[in-house]
Amino acid sequence: MDLSRDGFAPVAVALAAQGWCVADGLLTVAQTDALGKECAAQHLRGALRMAATGSSHSAGVLRGDVTQWFDTLAPTVAQAVFVARIDALMRSLNRALMLTMVESESHYAVYAIGTGYVPHMDRLRDSDERVVSAVFYLNDRWLDAEGGALRLHLGGDAAHDIFPIAGTLALFMSSDILHEVLPATRTRMSIACWMRQRPRHC
Ligand code: OGA
Ligand code: MN
């Protein structure tokens, strides 16, 4: 699926039919490259931190990434380009699927070599705000043999692996799809993004 050629309509069709999809063409190669360089530079200066978790486990047991939220009020140029496209996709999904998403939140994530994220769901137990999860990858020339796939668990023994190649966008319904990040032999960079609706006090 190429969003630059086909538009956003096929995403809605796939999310409705199977709850997930993989797309290219969200951004140009140059725009993707700018995000990758910015993420690497922020990581180098120590701006990414271990994520907090609501659970009693320490985050490090569950996930090996460090993260930095985009500043929604003062995004960088590269971030603003990404958010504009994601928000256009969000509005398109609202119309096609009769959803009521109102905003997105995004963070850079860097996984150290050998780390991953255990199987989990993205909709937090105490909140129904996250509706669609989007993960955009920033790694040039990633080889399958380097590991680091996002593994979607699709019921029974079925699974689908998505490799974190620069420009690839993975999309899935936050409340439906169990998923994990497999360890890699190389540092792994991405943007994790959630399209959110207003809380409905579940
Ligand atoms: C997450 C997540 C997937 C990935 O941050 O919740 O599942 O491929 N990330 O980085
Ligand atoms: Mn997740």
List keywords for this structure.
binds manganese (II) ion; 7-stranded antiparallel β-sheet; alpha+beta; 202 residues; Jelly Rolls; binds N-oxalylglycine; single chain; 4-stranded antiparallel β-sheet
Account of the 3D structure:
By secondary structure, the chain is an alpha+beta fold. It has a single domain, classed as Jelly Rolls, CATH 2.60.120. The chain is 27% helix and 30% strand. A hairpin with a 5-residue loop joins strand 7 and strand 8. It starts with a helix and ends in a 5-residue tail after the last strand. The relative contact order is 0.22. Bound molecules: N-oxalylglycine (OGA) and manganese (II) ion. The site of manganese (II) ion has 3 residues, from loops.
Q: Which CATH class applies here?
A: Mainly Beta
Tell me, rounded to a whole number, the average pLDDT.
94
Strand element count:
11
- Total of domains: 1
The main β sheet shows up as: 7 strands, antiparallel
Shape: globular
Poorly predicted runs: none
User: How many angstroms does the end-to-end distance come to?
Assistant: 34 Å
- The main sheet orders its strands as 1-9-6-11-4-3-2
Structural class: alpha+beta
Topology:
Layout lengths: L2 H4 L2 H10 L1 E4 L5 H16 L4 E2 L8 H4 L2 E5 L7 H21 L3 E11 L5 E4 L9 E8 L12 E4 L5 E4 L6 E5 L4 E4 L6 E10 L5
Antiparallel strand pairs: 1-9, 2-3, 3-4, 4-11, 5-10, 6-9, 6-11, 7-8, 7-10
Helix pairs in contact: 2-5, 3-5
The chain binds N-oxalylglycine (OGA) and manganese (II) ion.
